[in-house]
From TrEMBL:
Domain DNA replication complex GINS protein PSF2 N-terminal: 12-71
Domain GINS subunit: 75-170
Name assigned to this protein: DNA replication complex GINS protein PSF2
Cellular compartments per GO CC: GINS complex
Organism: Cerrena zonata
Length: 186
């Protein structure tokens, strides 16, 4: 059931996944196909075994029909994610990850797990990274200031998660700055 816009505070995770599916990814087609025009653009031609870049939504569609192999992005491997997890747990700032890493990883691990090396380890690393980054977000929000909040390298899903809290907190801080003697509702 969809909520009316007035009751929604942020975009849902499936909606973020849909947005992320517009990004291009490499595939190895198993069938030949001429260049085909879609609303979002023209893609192809597909000529096996040459790699081709297509939107993730198209790669998912072809993969589900067993007409391609997905080439995972460079960052979707255990070495890279283990390095990012180490950075997240040892450094105070957020490590740099692709803006839509969580959404892309979820879609690819759900649909093309057989094309990805060690998918269960990747799922575990991604979960650990997200938990470490959520802890940093909570810590950052506890130190919120009415004039500035800097959280560089925050990703799409993380921004979406803190948006409702941030909007409310900034509203309260704005009221406090305007009228410091005002009592706030509990």
């Amino acid at each position: 059931m969809a909520l009316p816009p007035s009751l929604r505070l942020s975009v849902t995770p499936p909606e973020l996944e849909l947005i992320a599916c517009e990004q291009l990814i490499e595939i190895i087609p198993l069938v030949a196909m001429e260049r085909t025009a879609f609303i979002s653009g023209a893609f192809g031609p597909l000529r096996p075994p040459a790699k081709c870049k297509v939107p993730i939504w198209m790669a998912v569609n072809l993969k589900l029909k067993k007409k391609c192999h997905v080439v995972p992005p460079d960052w979707l491997n255990t070495d890279f994610l283990q390095d990012r997890l180490t950075r997240e747990t040892t450094m105070p700032e957020f490590s740099q990850l692709p803006f839509r890493f969580a959404e892309i990883a979820k879609v690819l691990l759900d649909v093309a797990f057989e094309d990805i090396e060690n998918p269960e380890k990747l799922r575990s690393l991604l979960k650990d990274i997200q938990e470490a980054r959520q802890a940093k977000s909570r810590e950052g929000l506890s130190k919120i200031d009415h004039s500035e909040l800097s959280l560089p390298n925050l990703c799409s899903m993380e921004i979406n998660e803190i948006r409702p809290v941030f909007i409310r907190a900034m509203g309260v801080l704005t009221q406090l700055v305007k009228d410091p003697e005002r009592q706030l509702p509990q």
